[in-house]
Amino acid sequence: MKPAVLIVDDDPSIVRMLEMGLAEDYEIVPVFEPAQTLSVFSETAIDLVISDIKMPGLSGFDVLRAVKAANPLVEVILLTGELPDRSQPAVDALQSGAHDYLMKPVSIRRLKAAIHQALSRQQQQLEDKRKFQELIRQANTDFLTGLSNRHHFQKQVQLEFERSYRYERSLSCLLLDIDDFKKVNDEFGHCAGDQVLQRLGQLLGKYLRSSDLKCRFGGEEFVIILPEGNAEVASTVAEKMRRFIAKEAFEFADPPLHVTASIGMATSERRNFSSAEELIRAADLAMLQAKRSGRNCVRAHYPGMRAGLQDLPIMALRR
Ligand code: GH3
Ligand code: MG
Ligand code: MG
User: Which partner from 6, 120, 266, 296 sits 20 to 30 angstroms from 252, CA to CA?
Assistant: First the structure.
């Protein structure tokens, strides 16, 4: 597909002349009425703009500013026929962010070279942007499960917690720990264990809402934040998760292996927790309670729970 080039000049003969010279290589969008430039630009996918500087009602600099505000990656080449001071308009144009500045009469060869260079620069910038976004994605993602890693999650959960705290909205946290996972590794090998973690990550991605935060918190632990989720919602989601995990069959074993998970949940409402860390800690305590209750079950945190567990050291509960 040819790149789309918008050409605007109040002199129709110039627009026609440039269109003829460039039509072989580019999809030309001619604008004869400068006032229509911005509406045409916003309604059409344009890769590059060529604009006269001096036009009635709208200058080339106005076009440049509007184009860059709408999409900084679209390059603009300015043209002018004025000659009183040859260098000043060029300096102004380039300082304002134009890719290039050409004097009339325009040489088509020179213009083609400028367009080629502008589009190459645009491609390079797009590629840099894509690589940068990919790096950010990788830095935020757990490579095995594709969920948020702990570092990224910590930032996300702060924001969600602050929002819920400020507006006194509910927010629930589920902490899920796979039961007897060490045995899976011991019996079927570490790669099989990795497959289990990977599949559970996919299941969480599939069954939970995109607005829920999903994180691989540690080795075989996952944490989920349900924004706007009250205790009832949390309990429904946790039970649904517990069931779909237990149902999943892992075919690397014969007969297929089933794993289970213990889930702890805690709900922040009416400012009962003062930080995200406290909320997660409460869900962790509830998860340990689920382990104590025989595993493969869901337990909710309640205000006195910490005291109830004090007689047993946490490490002992974790086995
Ligand atoms: P519990 O029911 O009490 O949670 O028992 P558990 O065996 O699941 O818990 P434990 O904490 O004793 O063992 C966790 C195991 O998870 C040990 C560790 O080797 C394994 N693990 C942690 N991270 C990974 C990983 O990335 N891949 C694999 N395959 N195993 C992992
Ligand atoms: Mg664990
Ligand atoms: Mg475990």
Answer: 296
Are both 110 and 217 inside the same structural domain? no
Residues 107 and 185 in one domain: no
Number of Cβ atoms within 10 Å of the Cβ of 76? 25
DSSP output for 46-64? -SEEEEES--SSS-HHHHH
Nearest to 60, CA basis, from 97, 21, 27? 97
**Residue-range definition of the domain harbouring residue 264:** 150-317
Q: Is residue 77 part of a domain?
A: yes
Nearest residue (by CA) to ligand 1, atom 4, is 179
Candidates 31, 41, 28; CA nearest to 68 is 41
Q: Confirm if 218 and 287 have CB atoms less than 8 A apart.
A: no
Instruction: Answer yes or no: do 109 and 247 share one domain.
Output: no
How confident is the model at residue 306, as a pLDDT?
Answer: 66
Residue of minimum CA distance from atom 24 in ligand 1: 219
SS3 at position 45: coil
DSSP string, 97-155: T-SEEEESSPPHHHHHHHHHHHHHHHHHHHHHHHHHHHHHHHHHB-TTT-SB-HHHHHH
Q: What is the mean pLDDT of each run of 10 residues along the chain (319 residues)?
A: 95 96 97 93 96 92 93 93 66 80 90 96 95 96 96 96 95 98 97 97 94 96 97 97 97 96 97 95 96 97 72 49
Residues 161 and 263 in one domain: yes
State whether 96 and 156 are in the same domain.
Answer: no
Which of 187, 220, 292 is the pocket-test mutation for ligand 1 (most atoms within 8 Å of CB)? 220
Name the amino acid, one letter, at 262: S
| Helix 150-166 vs helix 276-292: crossing angle, to nearest 10 | 110
This prediction has a pTM of: 0.77
Report CA(192)–ligand 1 centroid distance (Å): 12
Give the atom of ligand 1 at the shortest distance from the alpha carbon of 318. 3
Cβ atoms of 28 and 14 closer than 8 Å? no
Largest CA distance in the chain: 90
